């Protein structure tokens, strides 16, 4: 099982590396943000896999904090940073 | 037996992450990319967590895993809605063939 | 076993490659929003690096601050910058034209010297060094906690944390001194955002308490707990949560200085009784550290949320 955990973590990291292209390319700010959201979830999965491989409870706490704060970043994006001159602070 | 199922779930989860990434790269507009992203978020992580929870050494560890998934589900769904709504209000047009 | 090491090695190599290229992309990105997203991704990967270096304490802090709150803080800064951006762009492009040969060569020479110095320092390090680990291990019994990192940060070198609290307070003061009162944003009418807040905020507060409590014998502690608490504050601010005017003046300032205040009082009292700065009596060390950390958590949370607001808070009621 150890081998599977580590290979899957490697696989997910490679996924993340490929997804970087969307951050660089855009075109819109929201597209970049979506990629960041995917990175967050991927990092949670990688952490949980590493936690299981190392039987470490602390790493699960890191994953928990990731999961919580990714949501806060995304809401901050929608409410603050997503600026288009013609439509600001709509909701 | 447990190992087998757990392996199955983990691999299926990884497949959904791959699908999400491919979708994020290949889909033509924001809304379709959002769709791809939520697949990885909800189903991909869900399957992985199911696979890992089967291996968990105690009930509290499994509970924490399920809690993480629940939070990601909730946040993912809400954020997908907020981004899609924001995009519509800002006049981002859905893609047409 | 060999295959496992190989897979882990590949993981590490890919991770290092990603971190380095992200660092470069963040610095070279002209689009500020792109730079923020890249920086958030950089924080995520840095947390993974700390995990691989077997430093879960720092991974937790990086996850909470680097990948989490910094993104939100920078987005708030970008929001504020949007009004001054045109001026800044003109200045930047004017500067670029004036770059002379000497202003290109001098930084290069300085950089080469720094690289040489760092390289020399790195190569002259002993190959195997115990550092302070044996010292910490020897004195763990007297620290009042079971997590060596907490023991160092709150007991053996308690003044580190004290000064960090002051630094955070100074950061907030300098943001406030930039001027501009910030009105709290109007209450959101969006039902989804509302329900997200109603679930996430209690969970964030609960996780913050958990991290504070678990810090005594596992990775966790005041900074991690404080930034999770700060995230709860940021979420509340974003959904247009209202604080009554009367709480914005003294009660807010009281919470902001609570951490540093309790720290300084504790240090002074201990200096008088024990004859040393922050030298706790062994029997009481446990609850004293918990008290300090609880006060610090509240202050850090409030400070981070206030930083996100970006100016002296002002209620919307009396505009």
UniProtKB/TrEMBL annotation, chain A:
One of its GO terms (molecular function) is sodium:proton antiporter activity. The chain crosses the membrane at residues 29-50, 62-82. Belongs to the CPA3 antiporters (TC 2.A.63) subunit F family. Keywords: Cell membrane, Membrane, Transmembrane, Transmembrane helix, Transport. It comes from Sedimenticola selenatireducens. It is found in: Cell membrane. One of its GO terms (cellular component) is plasma membrane. This is pH regulation protein F. It comes from the Bacteria. It is a multi-pass membrane protein.
């Amino acid at each position: 099982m150890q081998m599977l955990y580590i290979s899957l973590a490697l696989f997910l990291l490679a996924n993340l590396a490929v997804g970087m292209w969307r951050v660089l390319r855009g075109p819109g700010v929201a597209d970049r943000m979506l990629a960041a959201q995917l990175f967050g979830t991927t990092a949670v999965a990688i952490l949980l896999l590493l936690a299981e491989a190392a039987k470490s409870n602390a790493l699960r706490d890191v994953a928990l904090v990731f999961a919580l704060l990714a949501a806060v970043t995304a809401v901050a994006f929608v409410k603050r940073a997503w600026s288009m001159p013609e439509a600001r602070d709509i909701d | 037996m447990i190992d087998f199922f757990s392996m199955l779930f983990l691999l299926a989860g990884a497949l959904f992450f791959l699908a999400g990434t491919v979708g994020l790269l290949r889909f033509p507009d924001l809304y379709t990319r959002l769709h791809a992203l939520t697949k990885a978020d909800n189903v991909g992580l869900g399957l992985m967590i199911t696979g890992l929870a089967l291996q968990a050494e105690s009930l509290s560890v499994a509970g924490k895993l399920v809690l993480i998934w629940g939070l990601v589900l909730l946040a993912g769904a809400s954020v997908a809605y907020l981004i899609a709504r924001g995009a519509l209000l800002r006049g981002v047009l859905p893609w047409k063939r | 076993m060999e295959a496992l090491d190989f897979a882990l090695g590949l993981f590490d190599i890919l991770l290092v490659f990603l971190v380095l290229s992200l660092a470069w992309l963040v610095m070279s990105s002209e689009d500020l929003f792109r730079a923020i997203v890249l920086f958030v991704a950089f924080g995520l990967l840095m947390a993974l690096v700390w995990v691989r270096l077997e430093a879960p304490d720092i991974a937790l802090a990086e996850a909470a601050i680097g990948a989490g709150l910094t993104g939100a803080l920078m987005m708030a800064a970008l929001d504020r910058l949007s009004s001054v951006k045109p001026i800044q762009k003109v200045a930047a492009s004017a500067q670029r034209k004036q770059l002379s040969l000497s202003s290109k060569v001098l930084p290069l020479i300085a950089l080469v010297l720094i690289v040489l110095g760092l390289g020399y320092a790195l190569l002259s390090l002993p190959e195997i060094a115990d550092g302070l680990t044996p010292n910490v291990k020897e004195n763990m019994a007297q620290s009042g906690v079971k997590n060596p990192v907490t023991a160092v940060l709150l007991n053996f070198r308690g003044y580190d944390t004290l000064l960090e609290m002051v630094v955070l307070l100074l950061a907030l003061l300098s943001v406030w001194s930039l001027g501009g009162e910030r009105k709290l944003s109007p209450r959101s009418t969006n039902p989804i955002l509302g329900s997200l807040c109603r679930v996430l905020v209690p969970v964030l507060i609960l996780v913050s308490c958990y991290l504070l409590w678990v810090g005594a014998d596992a990775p966790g502690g005041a900074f991690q707990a404080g930034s999770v608490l700060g995230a709860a504050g940021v979420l509340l601010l974003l959904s247009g949560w209202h604080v009554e005017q009367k709480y914005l003046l003294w009660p807010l300032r009281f919470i902001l200085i609570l951490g540093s205040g309790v720290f300084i009082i504790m240090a002074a009292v201990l200096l008088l009784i024990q004859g040393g700065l922050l030298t706790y009596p062994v029997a009481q060390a446990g609850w004293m550290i918990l008290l300090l950390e609880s006060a610090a958590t509240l202050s850090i949370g409030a400070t981070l949320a206030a930083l996100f607001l970006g100016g002296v808070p002002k209620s919307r009621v009396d505009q």
